[in-house]
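dude i think i finally got it to work??
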Amino acid sequence: MGENKIVGVIGGMGPLAAAEFFRRLILATPATCDQEHLHILVDNDPTVPNRTDAILRGGPDPVPKMIAMAKRLQAGGAGVLAMPCNTGHVFLERIRDAVDVPVLDMPGETAGAVREPCVGLLATTATIGTGLYHRACEGRDIELLVPDASDQELVMKAIYWIKASGETKAPQVWIDGVAGRLRARGAKALIAGCTELSLLSGEALSTPWYDALDYLVRATLREALG
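look at this
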């Protein structure tokens, strides 16, 4: 066993999702005392411009602030970086090019875990529009279904509701409805492809639920543990 790597978290997108990633990472670490846990650095900069606005509406480029976080984390000693924001992964290669340590690929890790041939994708409109998960699923014999326009509006409403309030009761109802309609179209499982949706209960959906945040946690442990 080698020495554990320091984990750097590129956070703030949104802050609650970053906090949930940190919580899950701690709970998943095979530690029996404080000293056996990973050394984790979190840079939680909430001033990163909106990723969806940048992609769909030509808004301010979020990448400079994302890269600044990555560089600060590397300078602080991080040996592997995790970014708990799915839409942020549209810019993954630009961030990777700016640092000398690995930056994990959350969509790729998630797609690699899917076993069902037809899966519904719950994600931001920008994530869907850029084909982020479609590319991750290429060559894996996975058909991705996305919500229709009205249901996608509900997905975005749920995401921004959680960002604004942290409350999940109403979003759970909306996403349950969207999930049911994806199942009716043939989806045998669902991908929670937005980290705000990771705060909902997949168990309530009666469908296999691939939570991207969980697969980022798994990849982080795989790369960081000596």
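The first strand starts at residue 6 and ends at 11.
im so relieved honestly
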